[in-house]
Amino acid sequence: MKPIAVSFLVFSVSALFTFSFSQKVVTGKVISASNGESIPSAAVTVKGTTKGVTTDMNGNFNIEVPKDANQLEVRFIGYEPYTIALGESNEYTIKLQSSSISLDQVVVVGYGTQKSKDLTSPISVVQGSDLSKIASPNAAQALQGKVAGLQIINNGAPGAGATVKIRGVGSIGDYGQPLYVVDGMFVDNLDFISADNIETISVLKDASAAAIYGVKAANGVIIVTTKKGMEGRPVISYDGSASIQVPVNIVPMTNKEQYIDFWNLANQNAIGWTPRNPNDYPANTNWYEELIGPAVMHNHSIDVSGATENTNYSVGLNYFSQDGTMKVDNNYERLSIRGRFEQKAAKWLSAGASILFTNFKKREAEQAALRQAYVNPPVYPVYNSDNTAAYPVNFDSPQRYGYPNAYGNPVAAAYYRNNRTKGNRFLASAFADIDIWKDKLKFRSSYNVDFHNMVNFNYLPENFVGGSQGTSSSNLTEKITVNFNQIIDNVFTYSDSRNRHNYTVTLGQSTRMFKQNFVEGTAKDVPNTDEQSIYLKTGSARDRNNNDGAEVLNGLSAFARATYNYGEKYLLSATFRADASSKYQQKWGYFPSFGAGWVISEENFMKKSKGIDFFKLRVSWGMLGNDNVPANSGVALAVPGIGSSAVFGDNLVDGLGQQIKVAPNYLKWEVVNEWNVGLDFAFLNRRLTAEVDYYYRTTDNVVYNAPVSGTTDELLGNYGKVLNTGVEFSLGWSDHAGNNFSYHVNLNATTIHNEVLELDGREFLPGAQVTNGYATRTQVGHPIGSFYGYQMTGIVQSRQEGDIGYPIYLDKDNNGITPEDMAFLGSPIPYLIGGLELGCAYNFGKKIGTVDFGISFYGQAGNKIFNQKRMNRSVFSEANYDLNYYNNAYTSNNKNGIYPSPEAFNTSTVQQPNSFFVEDGSYLRIQNIQIGYTMTGVPKISSIRVYISADRPYSLFSYNGFSPEVSKSFNSAGVATGSPITAGMDNNIYPMSAIYSIGLKLSF
Amino acid sequence: MKQYNNNHIIAGLIRNLFLLILAVSTISCGKDFLNSRPEGTIAIEGIDYSKSENIFLSVSAAYASMRTNNAYGIGYLACFEIASEDADKGSEPGDSPLIDEIDKWAFTSSNDIFNQLWTGYYSIVDAASFAVDEMPKYEAAQMNEENKLYARQCSGEAKVIRAFAYFSLVRLFGYINLPLRSDLTALERAALPQVTPAEVYAQIKKDLNEAIDVLPQAYGKGWDGRINRYTALGIKAKVHLYLNELDSAALCAGMLISSGKYSLLPSFRDEFRSVGENSRESVFELQYSMLGKTTGEAALPNDPYAFLQGPRGNTPSNMQGWGLCSPSLSLRNFFASRGETIRAEVTFMKTDTIFEGSFIKRGKDCPEYYNGKVFSPPDENTWSFNGYSRDYNIRLLRYADILLIYAEALVRGGTDINGASSADAALNTVRRRALLNDTVTTLQTVLDERRAELALEEDRFFDLVRQGNAGTVLGLDAKFSSSGGFQGYYPIPVKQMQLNTNLVQNINYR
User: Fold this and answer.
1) CA-nearest residue of chain B to A443?
2) Which residues does chain B have within 8 Å of residue A777's beta carbon, measured at their own beta carbons?
3) ipTM for the complex shown
4) Best-predicted range by mean pLDDT among A660-664, A751-755, B60-64?
5) Which of A123, A207, A182, A169 is nearest to A673 (CA)?
């Protein structure tokens, strides 16, 4: 609706070299519309040329204008550009509006654009220039804290994407990702796009706005428009930064003495126990220190863009490189080439194309090494020449100290793994706009392609460390993935106005064809001479295996939208979309929406009230579908392969099993229903702006993968109805103090109330399988995936109460501890998410330039995290302890300890879902601090900006983990897995990094 | 103005062209545009029931469903053997706390091992039920009588697999669900009633009887270990013994004895070597095979049964395992008191000595003895990773067991109407191979013989339960005194109680 932040950067004070053949002189004064003060150093140019001047200290200007010129443009930082239509007069007073509110801003909505002030639904717009201020690998990460209602959960691994949730958790299944539309193409993430390539991002939050995308839009839509040229002189710009990433908040673990102390306490009653002595172990190793350290990252973009009356172009080159923070070869590198071209070929036709080609290369570190660093005892060294069995490197092995094979040397695990991925992504679209009838009836046809391929080599060379760590023959898995996705859109738009009636009707049709194929092969004994040798064909001819697979998704849609306003005072909109998807057994779904707005400030009674510049009331309702579920999952399939084949002696007999051991089930559309009521305000000469939205969103026929009784299977079904409701609030204040100092404050906050309303007659659905139970439960009247387990009320202190050091669980019914005593222990969904941004700039005058400062905060409150890392002792019973546990565990020396004793900790009495593992996940973080200096008046350069910034330098949280941002659960290898029901299950062991950068932006 | 009109016409043409392209592209995708089935899959509906070579497909999958860690891995060792007085958890003191809890009878119903067993055996039930449900479709679609007969016979195999899985489930948990259809919906499953052990046993006997009617006595070459009529009879003999139905137990066991197809191998050791697999002594074996490979996919689970019991901390890497299920002092004393020689040598693998030509090193804090029955020599351990004894077939039921069932049924007062053999003959056949003197059959001599002959073969715990001795022998009556002594069952897994709220916890664990 408005840009969330005033951008200090959105300025293109043109370099002013005037070679005049002037015919007349125009003079004037530039003042601020809000306070009437004059604006010095504002740029005044003849539109469409490079000719221009700047205003003097009193805001006055004097420019020579060619006779045929009919427009002047005035620009200044923090203000909306203003265009003067030159008439008879040669003297003008120009009032610039602060750019924090821009009601005439054109907002990209689905299959079209609308003026911000005419919208009936909440759409947030973020400028690309704001995103590129944040040092982040991709655009999605940079969005964090910028938009009310948007929850972004970042991950620290190099090149890793972010989890994005709009307005809470709508789906129970892992299908709650919003739709991303990049220049018309549907994509699954923004990982491949640098923030530097982006012109704007529109976030369609409510159902009424998103309904035009029907089937894909149940969880909101994020529309990305890549940069295009601005009319005027060609602009050449460079944007670069160099950063250092410093891992932060690494969980402190116990040292050798502390660990052995607890090992002895844990096992003192075990059969065959003999006390261990720390002096018998050769080292005191901090595994995280051995594995993790600072790493560099840098980013460079060059863009050239421009436009004339009939042509608009923009091309760019971006290079991004990020080293991982693991102390082995791990990194991510991305090169992208971007081009966008649009030509008005005839009065009735303009055509264009855009491409975004991305080439990336990454080498991923073995995340299992981080898991090993968490569990491995600190008692042995990284290297040990006494371990003569180890080769080629003399790593030491935990097996030499009697540890089971589940433990492996973390550094060795990271060192040997060679996991490289190379890929290309080609996003292209071509379109034609046809003016069928006098600017009124237009037709646009576009063809969009997303072609991406990836080759992954996952190689483990021959090596031996100890126990089962190592392999006597090297092994390679090579996997090639090819995606080819196409969308064809055809849209008619008719817009007209008569008297004060303005209306637009859009009719369209869309066809989607998505296909993914993969082929993979494995081989043994692949020589490790160099990268050129690591191929399947160089391996042994024996023991080669191969596999393949594909996924096809097709969709057909027809849609219509009508918007109407009367004098930009009364606003109405309606959309309808019919969608068919090959994913569901029920093919067609129908999704209507309506919206209405009343610009009260346009009413006569309001026009008189001073201080209120704009006041709009909006109401909208809409329905959305969600086909972001696994294709045809309700179909019962036969399963071939060795797992379905009997063996008699050594004779394998082919068999065919049943995949889903239940009847095929009929999958219906997951449907979202959403009401939104909102208010937009602008007060005090538009210095204060506010936006408040109340949303009430229900999801019906929720598709969820539920565990099936008596099996290890899970099955997709339509299992119920979920509510998300809350208030979104953004407030902006932007002002100037004196002529040279401007400042702004932006605040946004979102509340989320999540509740399961129906479960298809079931009492509850268990989720999040952990070793000894289900850690979450989805039940009517509670948030999705709430934590569920026993409530620990204390620690047994005396023999009479039970086993000393064991937890006391609340016995609700006084009949001993039974499953009936379990209770809800909180939810992973925060009830409050908020961001705060403060910025100011001081203009030292034309000769020196402007200094700006900004700081932003992000936080969330009310969510709980299940500390699953601590729940590993059924498998890793001799694992290291985190220091927080060590300091707070009950022992004979620490009878005030509030955690179960080391002995109890290893038993299933503790290692089952209970409140000991559930911790508060609230946090507050400094998202970004930035100081920049913008020089103007440098010959031949229109602007230079240098800045230093710190991203995520400090986070405040009480949770005992690496980061309170828990997006997904991770399996023992550290790979993200599982459904959203496991949203707050924290098994994450990849530390987040603070990023410190210096950057330079230049434009010519 | 004329110019404009021309443009207008061109615009119209182009528009139509776009629509045409669109229409063509849509039509060319064909009628299946919205009906795409998952790629690379076979739909159940697509199976051709008229092809005779397809008949065995689902039965094959039922056999394969038994090869899981859940059913025959850690849980199998823990609840069928380690829980008894004959075996300890093994491994190191701090390792595998979940098994340790079962060894000490200090578990909660949340202990995941119970859930692994539950889902492991129900997966077998489901795969077998799928085969049982598929066979009538083949029978109907097949043209010739021989193939129809084959479909009925295959159905018998699946029923034996199902009955055997239920036999494990009912012994473990007693009061369980009894799904018999493969087309149950998730909701129907979650609402299955809890049935009594008697109802489960009735179904087991029904399945076995139906199987016995249709199964052949033997198969040709290449079908080693395939379920035949005697497999079904042998299982049924054991089921009857557990139910104290002595005449029937004797009758069924007697039919194996009089068939002449089974005998004990002359060497006790050979029965547990690879030469003993699918031998004349084998009634039912779970088949594990490396398929002649050294890596990749093989017909065995990740951490197979014998590998789990391999000597921990031993070298080289193909001669080590997890070190679980170590023979207890009680068992070794029992063998010593009987003067066991052959069976003691085979059953107890002592560390820091040479066992069958291989020196076995005792791992740090690890047990002194391991299960020698599952030993396999280095030259057979060719798997490239964790190679110890991977393809060891689990001896689920062997002829020695049948002889002892026969002897016990008779000595308890049962009658074999066919008079296949005598209690003494059956018992002493087993004793002679162990180089023990003949003895007169009493209930105690038979039960002691079972303990010695079947030691560490996952028979002991439920043998005690069956005799009503588990409570006293293992001291469980005192432990469960508040609920009236040990009732013979493990707890229903908490996870399953959450998935099916009809399940009520067994009495000891409420």
Assistant:
1) B15
2) 498
3) 0.90
4) B60-64
5) A207
